[in-house]
Amino acid sequence: MEGYRFLGCGVAVVLAFSLGGCIHSDSERSGVVDGRQWCERVADDPTQPYIDALRSELLALGPEVSEAEATLLAEVSVRHAEYIRRKWGIVRPIELHNTLVNLGLRQRGLCYQCAEAMYERLHALDLKTVDLHWGVAHKGDMWLEHSGVIVTAKGRPFDDGLVVDAWRHSGRLRWARVTGDRYPWGEMLKWKYPDAVRLARNAGRSSLASREREKGGEEAAPAAARVEKSKQAAGVDDDISRDSPGSPQTQPAQRVESLTGRRADAG
């Protein structure tokens, strides 16, 4: 009997560690977190009403967004999330799928992998009136860290964007405004995506200049120099994904850095 209890505890520990990353409730679509209201929309199936709803929210990002590109982006986002779900055999709840991936029973489907698949598909559309940013929430938190694609109107700030997330609801696309989501998103450098890096660097320059103006106009260090310094300090190469020894996750951990000065951790 003692042996069975020991075995049960061992299985529980293995499952807990293999779940590592992105653990949240899947049942709620709105609520309050850290004293602020949040709300999200979810395409429960890849049908036209959900595509139209996403299109409307994309157009609301700003007058810069063309109707044609909003229509294309909405349809591709909803249908590509469904494609990812079928291709990788993503199951519900998503925490169970994380476990299957980390145990080697599914090939892919962790949150950053879904975000990469979505970013690459949307980037291939070569849209002219929107920007695609890389966002990370709860950076460094083993259980809560989450990655997503953030869509903004061309030239608009990251905080004005819309989160497009194919992971949270197991391949059913969800979307939410950056400032109205359950996650505390921060814009990050994703070295394998040069366009996302360029946007983050530009945001870093703007943020740094603003802070320096507030401090009385002290000379600011060039953003590029800060990027190189942070890369050298962190040992970052051309790709941010690498094995993380000692981490309970068996999948590569994300290597990301913030240039905007915003917190992207759990607290």
Describe this protein's structure.
The protein is of the alpha+beta class. It has one domain (40-258). It contains seven helices and nine strands; from the N terminus they run H-E-E-E-H-H-H-H-E-E-E-E-E-H-H-E. Strand 6 (162-165) and strand 7 form a beta hairpin.
| Strand arrangement, major sheet | 3-7-6-5-4-8-9
DSSP strand content: 15-25%
Cα gyration radius (Å): 19 Å
Structural class: alpha+beta
Largest sheet: 7 strands, antiparallel
How do the SSEs run, as a string of H and E?
A: HEEEHHHHEEEEEHHE
- Work out the helix count: 7
Number of strands: 9
The geometry reads as globular
Q: Unreliable stretches, pLDDT < 50, 5 or more residues?
A: 1-20, 217-227, 234-267
| Oligomeric state of the chains in view | single chain
Tell me roughly what share of residues is in helical segments. Answer: 25-40%
What is the average per-residue confidence, as pLDDT, rounded to a whole number? 78
Our measurement of the CA-to-CA distance between the termini, rounded to an integer number of angstroms, reads: 42 Å
How many separate structural domains? 1
SSE inventory with pairings:
Blueprint: H1 2-18, E1 30-33, E2 36-39, E3 41-42, H2 48-59, H3 67-88, H4 94-102, H5 111-123, E4 130-137, E5 146-153, E6 162-165, E7 174-177, E8 185-189, H6 194-214, H7 223-234, E9 257-258
Helix pairs in contact: 2-3, 3-5
Question: Quick recap of the structure?
Answer:
The chain has 267 residues and is α+β, with helices and mostly antiparallel strands. It has one domain (40-258).
